[in-house]
UniProtKB/TrEMBL annotation:
The keyword tRNA processing does not apply. GO terms for cellular component: acrosomal vesicle; membrane. It is found in: Cytoplasmic vesicle, Secretory vesicle, Acrosome. InterPro entries: MORN (IPR003409), MORN3 (IPR052472). Residues 15-62 are annotated as: Disordered. Assembles a suppression complex (suppresome) by tethering SIRT1 and MDM2 to regulate composite modifications of p53/TP53. Confers both deacetylation-mediated functional inactivation, by SIRT1, and ubiquitination-dependent degradation, by MDM2, of p53/TP53, promoting a proliferative and cell survival behaviors. May play a role in the regulation of spermatogenesis. Coiled coil: none annotated. It holds the Pfam family MORN. This is MORN repeat-containing protein 3. Its main location: cytoplasm. It comes from Tetraselmis chuii. Keywords: Cytoplasmic vesicle, Repeat.
Length: 391
């Protein structure tokens, strides 16, 4: 140790001992006190994303009134006015010479700049419409809902000038996702939309006739469907929140009102045929272009493979697909696992609960009722509009 320039006495003073050629030092845990962490409030503030102050530099093409010069030098939340080259006029909160916060944007109502009309009233972020707001169009149409990057995106309602309206999910300015389209004559459609068109499983409620059409839609057209009466107290398999609307809008029944019955079918298992048609359309959609595949995946309905595996598992467990064949309620969970459904997913117990309600007096669930639920099932948790990563 002396050859290395280290004093053995100094090492002894530092709590170091020598045994043969190995050195033993005092463990750090016995030399230092435990670390005292900051309070939770400090830790949360440190882990939150940064919120930097924007540079106070106005955008190109925006000039401000001289009387508002001092206002534009303030922080977010200061009120002011901005005037654009195209004649637009903004009144509201300003940050760094741009709309930021709540504000209103006015545009010229005509060729002359004397009269203005309100175009947007709502939230802004760094000069863009973002958050919740109301957009007034020159065609007398009004949108109320969420905005992202100046586009209708999220959840909102659009009132059209012909009296129709749509309420539901939007994606980059287009109807996309689950929604309800209300017609001016009182009818309404509940289902999935893709690029402003009906796509996938949906129900058209013909209120004045007291009937509904449940079917599979492709590019705004119904490819296959079944028409049924809207019964009092009925729960649609597509939406549980429209029962009160249906009952209030249905025509009142009276002694003078004629109720035309549908012609009776000789099919013993009509839902078996309908489920096969639904599965075939979804199979074609999954094999189509990328947009169609995304529509099928995000609609929340079961694809061709899921419906076919459920049918085969039912036949295997029940011992056949005849009318009298059925399974017991306690076999449903095992049947779903046999079909390849993940029991940990939220949709599996929901599907089992819907199937249990189809139990007949003999305590069994028959294939026709089983396939009806499987073809009309929709997982609402999958149909959510998210914000694109590039935004």
């Amino acid at each position: 140790m002396e050859a290395l320039g280290v004093d053995p006495a100094a090492l002894a003073g530092m709590g170091t001992t020598r045994t043969g050629l190995r050195m033993h030092t005092t463990p750090p845990s016995t030399k230092y006190k435990p670390v005292d962490y900051p309070p939770n409030a400090v830790m949360q503030r440190a882990s939150s994303p940064p919120n930097p102050t924007l540079p106070r530099k106005p955008n190109k093409g925006i000039r401000t009134s001289k009387a508002l010069g001092e206002t534009l030098k303030g922080r977010a939340g200061k009120y002011g006015e901005l005037i654009g080259k195209n004649g637009g006029h903004y009144c509201g909160e300003i940050l760094a010479g741009r709309p930021h916060g709540n504000g209103q944007y006015f545009v010229p109502a005509g060729p002359s700049a004397r009269n203005y009309r309100l175009q947007y009233d709502g939230e802004w972020i760094q000069g863009r419409r973002e958050g919740h707001g109301i957009r007034y169009y020159h065609t007398n149409e009004v949108y109320t809902g969420d905005f992202v990057n100046n586009e209708r995106h999220g959840y909102g309602r659009m009132d059209y000038r012909n009296g129709d309206s749509y309420e539901g999910q939007w994606w980059s300015g287009h109807k996309r996702g689950l929604g309800t389209y209300y017609y001016s004559n009182g009818d309404f459609f509940v289902g999935y939309f893709m690029h402003d068109k009906k796509e996938g499983l949906g129900t058209l409620y013909m209120v004045q006739r007291g009937k509904k059409m449940v079917g599979e839609w492709v590019s705004d057209k119904c490819a296959t469907s079944s028409i049924m009466f809207i019964e009092e107290g009925e729960l649609s398999p597509l939406d549980d929140n429209l029962v009160e609307t249906i009952e209030m809008s249905m025509p009142e029944s009276g002694p003078d009102m004629e109720r035309r019955e549908f012609p009776k079918l000789d099919l013993k298992q009509p839902n078996k045929l309908l489920a096969r048609q639904f599965a075939g359309i979804r199979k074609m959609r999954e094999a189509d272009n990328k947009a169609q595949r995304e529509a099928q995946q995000q609609s929340g309905t079961m694809g061709y493979a899921d419906i076919e595996m459920l049918r085969l598992s039912f036949v295997l467990m029940a011992g056949g697909d005849e009318v009298e064949m059925g399974v017991l309620t306690h076999q449903l969970r095992e049947l779903c696992v046999m079909a390849g459904l993940d029991p940990a997913q939220e949709r599996t117990p929901e599907l089992v609960a819907d199937l249990v309600r189809q139990k007949r007096a003999n305590g069994r669930i028959h294939l026709d009722d089983f396939l009806k639920i499987a073809a009309h099932y929709r997982d609402h948790s999958t149909a959510e509009v998210s914000i694109p990563d590039e935004w």
